[in-house]
């Protein structure tokens, strides 16, 4: 008899198994905390966990053919899962400069000019920008960009994905003029006093206005982007992710699916990626969309399990940083402006109802409180036709919530899919946009958990760097760059944050029966860390912060090494 097992011992194995989802409930149930049972050893064979327990329990399983690793006090946790990311977009954006870490716009423009000097003479300069930390915080205009780079088209995408900034050549190539019409809630061309475009376009479809004018990425470019993003994901300990609003990165739905299939079949995709197509890319609001099985039928059977299709993406509003999130009341720093819904009146209700009928789990972007209200209204209408709780419909971001919205989310069985690193990145901007009182209702992790609502953490990378360990720290601190907390009452413990990145994310992605915990029979998806992530204090780590040393997907080491 052979024992071709991998046995890890002499460390701390945080299983996330056998505990309630919040620390308060865990303590009441007699468990240590939301991290669940803690062990010192774990064993797996092929892609399944076969034992978890003490060294004395697990070490005897090792035979002459086993791989036995002394952890020497290091930490094993379930692999992180990211239910809301944009891997193709991340892979493409990895080759683009990012401006915004500088003190002001002028410094950012100097960095762009330097990047342009390294391009071919006729190439577009494509970059990303984040104005939230510049003095004044304004978007760059065509005049700014023309002064810095007058001899080639320049198009900057806002990191939120809800605005772009273009120079005069880019506007001309795309045919954007004073006659270009806005599309309510989806695209707004900012204009000067003479009605001419300033170069700034806001809205979810801002990039699409320029997409046809730019050279499209080749099939090989897209596969390379998938591989590049996959490598970054597993380096951060992510064992499964999703591509939310697949095809929205200027790629198109079919080319994006083909890129994932090619990466998977060629061995360049070491983790599973749930493909989440955008409903707007599958037809108009008044037409029934194809079902998940219809889309999945185009994926070869041999890789279909690594590219699951269950969920579809919608958008109810934009972003708080670009003032395109849809609010009930005026922005604190823009009197008379509340943002706008995405799409025509009634379109969201129609899309959600038809998607529910077609078998989709809907995942709807909603940041402002008015947007959250609209999504909940649409889900309530669908629930009246056929109960929705088993489908695990999700609100993506669910950022600005009051108690009434939380009660409605709980009643409907909706999953709150949230991104804690957003607060670390832009918490100060949220306070400026909303004022302190409303900002305290942003990302209400504690209230969501205490209400018994399933909480899943994700990243929305590349909007932010997206490392789950950073996301855990962000949820514990619940503060922006200045260190000022949005709310002392809404931060959660490190164990609860870890659970949201594992068990909660697995629930949101529909695979909690197979993943998210370290227990016998579960998938051998795990991460080796340098330090215990559940010991992160509220204001930062004492000493060294945890680092990812190795990532194991299905029993196979895909990043780092076990030694």
What does this structure look like?
- It is a single chain.
- The protein has 563 residues and is an alpha/beta fold.
- The chain folds into three domains: 112 residues, Urease, subunit C, domain 1; 123 residues, Diaminopimelate Epimerase, Chain A, domain 1, CATH 3.10.310; 229 residues, Metal-dependent hydrolases (TIM Barrel), CATH 3.20.20.140.
- The chain contains 19 helices and 24 strands.
- Helix 3 packs across helix 8.
- The longest helix has 17 residues.
- It is globular.
- The relative contact order is 0.13.
Count of folded domains: 3
Beginning-to-end CA distance, first to last residue: 25 Å
By CATH, the architecture of the largest domain is named Alpha-Beta Barrel
Report strand %: 15-25%
Classify the fold: give the CATH topology of the largest domain.
TIM Barrel
Annotation, overall tally of beta strands: 24
**Fourth-level CATH superfamily of the largest domain:** Metal-dependent hydrolases
The biggest beta sheet is recorded as:
6 strands, mixed
Morphology: globular
Question: How do the helices and strands line up, and which of them pair or pack?
Answer:
Blueprint: E1 6-9, E2 12-14, H1 23-28, E3 38-39, E4 41-45, E5 48-53, H2 55-58, E6 67-70, E7 75-78, E8 80-85, H3 87-93, E9 98-99, H4 105-116, E10 125-129, H5 142-148, E11 154-158, E12 163-166, H6 168-174, E13 188-191, E14 197-202, H7 208-211, H8 219-235, E15 238-246, H9 253-265, E16 272-277, H10 292-296, E17 311-315, H11 347-357, E18 361-366, H12 369-385, E19 394-397, H13 403-412, E20 415-418, H14 421-434, H15 436-439, H16 445-450, E21 455-457, H17 468-477, H18 494-501, H19 503-509, E22 526-529, E23 548-553, E24 556-560
Parallel strand pairs: 1-6, 2-7, 8-15, 9-10, 10-11, 15-16, 17-18, 18-19, 19-20, 20-21
Antiparallel strand pairs: 1-4, 2-3, 4-5, 7-22, 11-12, 12-14, 13-14, 22-23, 23-24
Helix pairs in contact: 3-8, 8-9, 11-12, 12-13, 14-17, 17-18, 18-19
């Amino acid at each position: 008899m052979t024992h071709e097992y991998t046995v890890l011992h002499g460390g701390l194995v945080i299983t996330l198994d056998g505990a309630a989802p919040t620390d308060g409930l865990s303590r009441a149930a007699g468990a240590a905390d939301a991290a669940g049972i803690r062990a010192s050893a774990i064993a797996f064979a092929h892609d399944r966990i076969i034992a978890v327990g003490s060294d004395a329990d697990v070490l005897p399983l090792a035979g002459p053919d086993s791989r036995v690793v002394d952890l020497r006090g290091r930490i094993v946790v379930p692999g992180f899962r990211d239910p809301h990311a944009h891997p193709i977009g991340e892979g493409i954006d990895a080759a683009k400069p990012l401006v915004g870490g500088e003190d002001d716009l002028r410094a950012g423009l100097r960095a762009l000019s330097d990047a342009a000097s390294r391009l071919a003479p006729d190439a577009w300069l494509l970059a990303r920008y984040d104005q939230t930390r510049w003095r004044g915080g304004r978007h760059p205009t065509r005049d700014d960009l023309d002064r810095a780079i007058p001899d080639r088209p320049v198009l900057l995408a806002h990191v939120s994905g809800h605005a772009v900034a273009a120079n005069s050549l880019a506007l001309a190539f795309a045919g954007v003029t004073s006659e270009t019409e806005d599309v309510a809630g989806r695209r707004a061309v900012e204009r000067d006093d003479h009605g001419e475009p300033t170069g700034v376009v806001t809205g979810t479809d801002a990039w699409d206005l320029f997409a046809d004018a730019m050279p499209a990425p080749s099939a090989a470019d897209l596969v390379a982007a998938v591989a590049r993003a996959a490598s970054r994901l597993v380096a951060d300990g992510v064992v499964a992710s999703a591509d939310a609003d697949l095809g929205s990165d200027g790629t198109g739905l079919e080319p994006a699916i083909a890129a994932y299939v090619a990466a998977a079949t060629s061995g360049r995709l070491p983790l599973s990626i749930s493909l989440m197509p955008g409903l707007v890319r599958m037809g108009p609001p008044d037409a029934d969309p194809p079902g998940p099985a219809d889309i999945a039928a185009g994926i070869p059977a041999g890789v279909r399990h690594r590219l699951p299709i269950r969920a579809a993406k919608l958008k109810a509003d934009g972003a708080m940083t670009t003032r395109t999130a849809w609010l009930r009341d005026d922005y604190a720093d823009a009197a008379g402006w509340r943002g706008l819904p995405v799409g025509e009146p009634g379109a969201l209700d129609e899309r959600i109802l038809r998607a529910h009928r077609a078998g989709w789990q809907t995942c709807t972007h909603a940041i402002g409180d008015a947007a959250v209200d609209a999504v909940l209204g649409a889900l309530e209408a669908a629930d009246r036709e056929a109960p929705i709780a088993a489908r695990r419909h999700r609100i993506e971001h669910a950022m600005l919530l009051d108690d009434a919205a939380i009660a409605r989310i709980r009643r409907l069985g909706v999953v709150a899919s949230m991104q804690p690193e957003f607060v670390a990145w832009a918490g100060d901007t949220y306070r400026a946009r909303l004022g302190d009182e409303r900002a305290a209702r942003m990302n209400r992790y504690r209230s969501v958990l205490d209400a018994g609502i399933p909480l899943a953490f994700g990243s929305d990378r590349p909007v932010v760097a997206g490392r789950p360990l950073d996301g855990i720290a962000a949820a514990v601190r619940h503060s922006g760059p200045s260190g000022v907390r949005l709310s002392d009452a809404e931060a959660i413990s490190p164990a609860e944050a870890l659970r949201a990145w594992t068990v909660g994310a697995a629930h949101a992605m529909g695979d909690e029966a197979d993943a998210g915990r370290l227990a016998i029979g579960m998938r051998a998806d795990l991460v080796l860390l340098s330090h215990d992530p559940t010991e992160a204090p509220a204001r930062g780590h004492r000493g060294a912060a945890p680092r990812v040393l190795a990532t194991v997907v299905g029993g196979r080491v895909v990043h780092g090494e076990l030694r």
